[in-house]
Amino acid sequence: MAEFTWWRIVPLATNTAAMNMAIDEAVMETVGAGRAPPTIRFYRWKPSAVSIGCFQSLNDEVRTDVATKQGIDIVRRRTGGGAVYHDYDGEITYSVIGKETLFSKGITESYHEICGWIIKGLAHLGIKAEFKPINDIVVNNKKISGNAQTRRNGVLLQHGTILHDLDVNKMFSVLNVSQEKIADKMIQAVEDRVTRVKDVVPQATLTDTYNALLKGFTEGKEQRFALLIKDELARAQNLAKKRYSTKTWTGSR
Question: N or C: lower Cβ tally within 10 Å for the chain?
Protein backbone atom coordinates (compact mmCIF):
# COMPACT_ATOMS: atom_id res chain seq x y z
CA MET A 1 0.00 0.00 0.00
CA ALA A 2 1.37 3.40 -0.99
CA GLU A 3 2.31 5.73 1.85
CA PHE A 4 0.51 9.04 2.19
CA THR A 5 2.71 12.00 1.27
CA TRP A 6 0.49 14.67 2.83
CA TRP A 7 -0.87 15.56 6.25
CA ARG A 8 -4.55 15.69 7.13
CA ILE A 9 -5.43 18.78 9.16
CA VAL A 10 -8.62 18.36 11.20
CA PRO A 11 -9.85 21.87 12.14
CA LEU A 12 -10.62 22.97 15.69
CA ALA A 13 -13.64 21.11 17.06
CA THR A 14 -15.28 20.61 20.45
CA ASN A 15 -16.02 17.24 22.04
CA THR A 16 -16.49 15.60 25.42
CA ALA A 17 -13.40 14.32 27.22
CA ALA A 18 -14.25 10.70 26.42
CA MET A 19 -14.79 11.46 22.75
CA ASN A 20 -11.56 13.43 22.45
CA MET A 21 -9.50 10.53 23.76
CA ALA A 22 -11.49 8.02 21.71
CA ILE A 23 -10.86 9.97 18.50
CA ASP A 24 -7.12 9.95 19.15
CA GLU A 25 -7.17 6.17 19.54
CA ALA A 26 -9.41 5.61 16.50
CA VAL A 27 -7.14 7.74 14.32
CA MET A 28 -4.09 5.84 15.57
CA GLU A 29 -5.74 2.66 14.31
CA THR A 30 -6.63 3.98 10.85
CA VAL A 31 -3.22 5.61 10.39
CA GLY A 32 -1.53 2.39 11.48
CA ALA A 33 -3.62 0.38 9.01
CA GLY A 34 -2.69 2.76 6.19
CA ARG A 35 -6.30 3.89 5.73
CA ALA A 36 -5.72 7.49 6.80
CA PRO A 37 -2.86 9.95 6.35
CA PRO A 38 -0.76 11.31 9.19
CA THR A 39 -3.06 13.63 11.07
CA ILE A 40 -2.89 16.88 13.00
CA ARG A 41 -6.06 17.84 14.81
CA PHE A 42 -7.05 20.64 17.15
CA TYR A 43 -9.78 20.38 19.75
CA ARG A 44 -11.48 21.79 22.82
CA TRP A 45 -13.21 20.10 25.74
CA LYS A 46 -16.86 20.64 26.70
CA PRO A 47 -17.54 20.44 29.53
CA SER A 48 -14.13 21.38 30.89
CA ALA A 49 -12.26 18.28 32.00
CA VAL A 50 -9.30 16.75 33.77
CA SER A 51 -7.28 14.11 31.95
CA ILE A 52 -4.97 11.85 33.91
CA GLY A 53 -2.00 9.86 32.66
CA CYS A 54 -2.36 6.19 31.87
CA PHE A 55 -0.40 5.11 34.95
CA GLN A 56 -1.71 7.62 37.48
CA SER A 57 -3.95 7.04 40.46
CA LEU A 58 -7.23 8.90 40.02
CA ASN A 59 -7.67 9.81 43.68
CA ASP A 60 -4.04 10.84 44.09
CA GLU A 61 -4.28 13.31 41.21
CA VAL A 62 -7.83 14.66 41.17
CA ARG A 63 -10.18 16.09 43.78
CA THR A 64 -13.08 14.12 42.41
CA ASP A 65 -15.62 15.71 44.75
CA VAL A 66 -14.69 19.19 43.50
CA ALA A 67 -14.80 18.00 39.88
CA THR A 68 -18.27 16.52 40.35
CA LYS A 69 -19.56 19.64 42.08
CA GLN A 70 -18.26 21.89 39.29
CA GLY A 71 -19.45 19.65 36.44
CA ILE A 72 -15.90 18.87 35.30
CA ASP A 73 -15.37 15.63 33.36
CA ILE A 74 -12.55 13.22 34.20
CA VAL A 75 -10.90 10.90 31.67
CA ARG A 76 -7.88 8.61 31.68
CA ARG A 77 -5.54 9.03 28.70
CA ARG A 78 -3.67 6.33 26.79
CA THR A 79 -0.53 8.44 27.18
CA GLY A 80 1.58 8.82 30.30
CA GLY A 81 2.46 12.07 32.00
CA GLY A 82 0.64 14.06 34.62
CA ALA A 83 -2.88 15.25 35.29
CA VAL A 84 -4.05 18.14 33.12
CA TYR A 85 -6.98 20.52 33.51
CA HIS A 86 -8.59 21.31 30.14
CA ASP A 87 -10.54 24.55 30.37
CA TYR A 88 -13.14 24.98 27.62
CA ASP A 89 -12.59 28.73 27.45
CA GLY A 90 -8.91 28.73 28.26
CA GLU A 91 -6.87 26.32 26.15
CA ILE A 92 -6.42 24.55 22.84
CA THR A 93 -5.40 20.91 22.61
CA TYR A 94 -3.73 19.30 19.62
CA SER A 95 -2.84 15.78 18.62
CA VAL A 96 -0.26 14.61 16.10
CA ILE A 97 -0.62 11.04 14.83
CA GLY A 98 1.64 9.41 12.27
CA LYS A 99 3.83 6.43 11.50
CA GLU A 100 6.88 6.37 13.77
CA THR A 101 9.13 6.60 10.72
CA LEU A 102 7.98 10.21 10.18
CA PHE A 103 9.60 11.34 13.42
CA SER A 104 12.91 11.28 15.24
CA LYS A 105 13.56 7.90 16.88
CA GLY A 106 14.50 9.19 20.32
CA ILE A 107 11.74 10.16 22.72
CA THR A 108 13.25 13.52 23.68
CA GLU A 109 14.14 14.25 20.06
CA SER A 110 10.62 13.53 18.82
CA TYR A 111 9.13 15.69 21.58
CA HIS A 112 11.53 18.47 20.57
CA GLU A 113 10.55 18.09 16.92
CA ILE A 114 6.79 18.32 17.43
CA CYS A 115 7.01 20.92 20.19
CA GLY A 116 8.99 22.98 17.71
CA TRP A 117 5.79 23.38 15.71
CA ILE A 118 4.10 24.89 18.76
CA ILE A 119 7.05 27.22 19.32
CA LYS A 120 6.77 28.36 15.69
CA GLY A 121 3.06 28.97 16.18
CA LEU A 122 3.56 31.03 19.33
CA ALA A 123 6.19 33.07 17.48
CA HIS A 124 3.43 34.19 15.10
CA LEU A 125 1.84 35.84 18.15
CA GLY A 126 5.13 37.49 19.07
CA ILE A 127 5.78 35.04 21.91
CA LYS A 128 9.29 33.68 22.39
CA ALA A 129 8.92 30.16 23.73
CA GLU A 130 11.48 27.45 24.45
CA PHE A 131 11.44 23.66 24.64
CA LYS A 132 12.13 22.37 28.14
CA PRO A 133 12.95 18.64 28.10
CA ILE A 134 11.38 16.29 28.31
CA ASN A 135 7.97 17.50 27.23
CA ASP A 136 7.24 21.11 28.24
CA ILE A 137 7.27 24.46 26.48
CA VAL A 138 8.04 27.50 28.60
CA VAL A 139 7.89 31.26 28.25
CA ASN A 140 10.11 33.15 30.70
CA ASN A 141 10.59 29.84 32.57
CA LYS A 142 6.84 29.43 33.02
CA LYS A 143 5.01 26.51 31.46
CA ILE A 144 2.65 27.39 28.61
CA SER A 145 2.34 23.92 27.08
CA GLY A 146 2.51 20.36 28.41
CA ASN A 147 2.71 17.35 26.10
CA ALA A 148 2.45 13.56 26.27
CA GLN A 149 3.32 10.78 23.87
CA THR A 150 2.75 7.10 23.22
CA ARG A 151 3.82 4.69 20.50
CA ARG A 152 1.82 1.61 19.55
CA ASN A 153 2.04 -0.72 16.58
CA GLY A 154 4.43 1.53 14.72
CA VAL A 155 2.32 4.67 15.22
CA LEU A 156 3.24 7.72 17.30
CA LEU A 157 0.63 9.82 19.09
CA GLN A 158 1.59 13.08 20.74
CA HIS A 159 -0.99 15.38 22.21
CA GLY A 160 -0.73 18.44 24.37
CA THR A 161 -2.24 21.70 25.50
CA ILE A 162 -1.51 25.33 24.82
CA LEU A 163 -2.73 27.62 27.59
CA HIS A 164 -4.60 30.63 26.27
CA ASP A 165 -6.52 32.13 29.19
CA LEU A 166 -7.43 29.38 31.58
CA ASP A 167 -8.56 30.00 35.15
CA VAL A 168 -5.45 28.98 37.09
CA ASN A 169 -7.23 29.04 40.46
CA LYS A 170 -9.92 26.72 39.14
CA MET A 171 -7.27 24.41 37.73
CA PHE A 172 -5.50 24.06 41.06
CA SER A 173 -8.80 23.69 42.91
CA VAL A 174 -9.51 20.44 41.08
CA LEU A 175 -5.96 19.03 40.86
CA ASN A 176 -4.04 17.60 43.80
CA VAL A 177 -0.71 19.42 43.60
CA SER A 178 1.77 18.05 46.12
CA GLN A 179 3.81 20.47 48.19
CA GLU A 180 6.82 18.22 47.56
CA LYS A 181 6.49 18.74 43.82
CA ILE A 182 6.37 22.49 44.31
CA ALA A 183 9.37 22.43 46.67
CA ASP A 184 11.37 20.34 44.21
CA LYS A 185 11.05 23.13 41.69
CA MET A 186 11.76 25.79 44.33
CA ILE A 187 8.48 27.52 43.62
CA GLN A 188 6.69 29.47 46.31
CA ALA A 189 3.24 29.48 44.73
CA VAL A 190 1.68 27.07 42.25
CA GLU A 191 0.44 29.98 40.15
CA ASP A 192 4.06 30.87 39.40
CA ARG A 193 4.52 27.63 37.47
CA VAL A 194 2.39 28.55 34.46
CA THR A 195 1.73 31.34 32.01
CA ARG A 196 -0.86 31.90 29.30
CA VAL A 197 -0.95 33.50 25.88
CA LYS A 198 -3.11 36.29 27.34
CA ASP A 199 -0.45 37.05 29.94
CA VAL A 200 2.03 37.83 27.18
CA VAL A 201 -0.30 39.14 24.45
CA PRO A 202 -3.40 40.50 26.26
CA GLN A 203 -5.25 41.37 23.06
CA ALA A 204 -4.98 37.85 21.59
CA THR A 205 -8.26 35.98 21.16
CA LEU A 206 -8.64 32.20 21.22
CA THR A 207 -9.10 32.38 17.44
CA ASP A 208 -5.82 34.29 17.14
CA THR A 209 -4.06 31.58 19.12
CA TYR A 210 -5.59 28.82 17.01
CA ASN A 211 -4.68 30.52 13.72
CA ALA A 212 -1.10 31.04 14.90
CA LEU A 213 -0.78 27.39 15.94
CA LEU A 214 -2.25 26.30 12.63
CA LYS A 215 0.54 28.17 10.84
CA GLY A 216 3.20 26.71 13.11
CA PHE A 217 2.01 23.14 12.63
CA THR A 218 1.50 23.30 8.86
CA GLU A 219 4.43 25.38 7.60
CA GLY A 220 6.57 23.40 5.17
CA LYS A 221 4.13 20.47 4.99
CA GLU A 222 1.99 19.27 2.12
CA GLN A 223 -1.38 19.27 3.81
CA ARG A 224 -5.13 19.27 3.28
CA PHE A 225 -8.00 20.18 5.55
CA ALA A 226 -10.23 17.14 6.02
CA LEU A 227 -12.64 15.71 8.54
CA LEU A 228 -12.54 12.29 10.15
CA ILE A 229 -13.76 9.42 7.99
CA LYS A 230 -16.94 7.51 8.90
CA ASP A 231 -15.02 4.50 10.20
CA GLU A 232 -13.03 6.69 12.59
CA LEU A 233 -16.14 8.38 13.94
CA ALA A 234 -17.96 5.09 14.45
CA ARG A 235 -14.94 3.54 16.17
CA ALA A 236 -14.46 6.63 18.34
CA GLN A 237 -18.10 6.63 19.43
CA ASN A 238 -17.76 2.98 20.41
CA LEU A 239 -14.51 3.58 22.32
CA ALA A 240 -15.98 6.62 24.08
CA LYS A 241 -18.97 4.61 25.26
CA LYS A 242 -17.27 1.34 26.16
CA ARG A 243 -13.93 2.59 27.51
CA TYR A 244 -13.26 6.28 28.02
CA SER A 245 -16.55 7.20 29.71
CA THR A 246 -16.57 4.22 32.07
CA LYS A 247 -15.66 4.27 35.73
CA THR A 248 -13.83 0.98 35.18
CA TRP A 249 -11.33 2.67 32.85
CA THR A 250 -11.08 6.04 34.58
CA GLY A 251 -10.74 4.55 38.06
CA SER A 252 -8.58 1.59 37.05
CA ARG A 253 -5.71 2.83 39.25
Answer: N
Task: For residue 9, give Cα distances in angstroms to 13, 81, 188, 203, 218.
Answer: 12, 25, 41, 27, 8
On whether the CB atoms of residues 160 and 147 are closer than 8 A, the answer is yes
d(CA 24, CA 150): 11
Chain centre to alpha carbon of residue 19: 13
CATH annotation of 7-250: 3.30.930.10
Q: Residues 6 or more apart from 56 whose CB is under 8 A from it?
A: 76, 82, 83, 253
Question: Cα torsion at 224, 229, 235, 236 (round to 10°)?
Answer: 50
How does pLDDT run across 165-204, given as a tens digit for each residue? 988 778 888 998 765 554 555 445 656 888 999 999 999 9
pLDDT digits (tens, 9 = 90+) for 118-129: 999 999 999 999
Instruction: Say if residue 129 is exposed, middle or buried (CB neighbours under 10 Å; 0-12, 13-18, 19+).
Output: buried
CB atoms within 10 A of CB 17: 25
pTM metric for this prediction: 0.92
CB atoms closer than 10 angstroms to residue 146: 17
Distance of alpha carbon 80 from alpha carbon 182, whole angstroms:
20
What's the rounded Cα separation, in Å, for the pair 23 and 15? 10
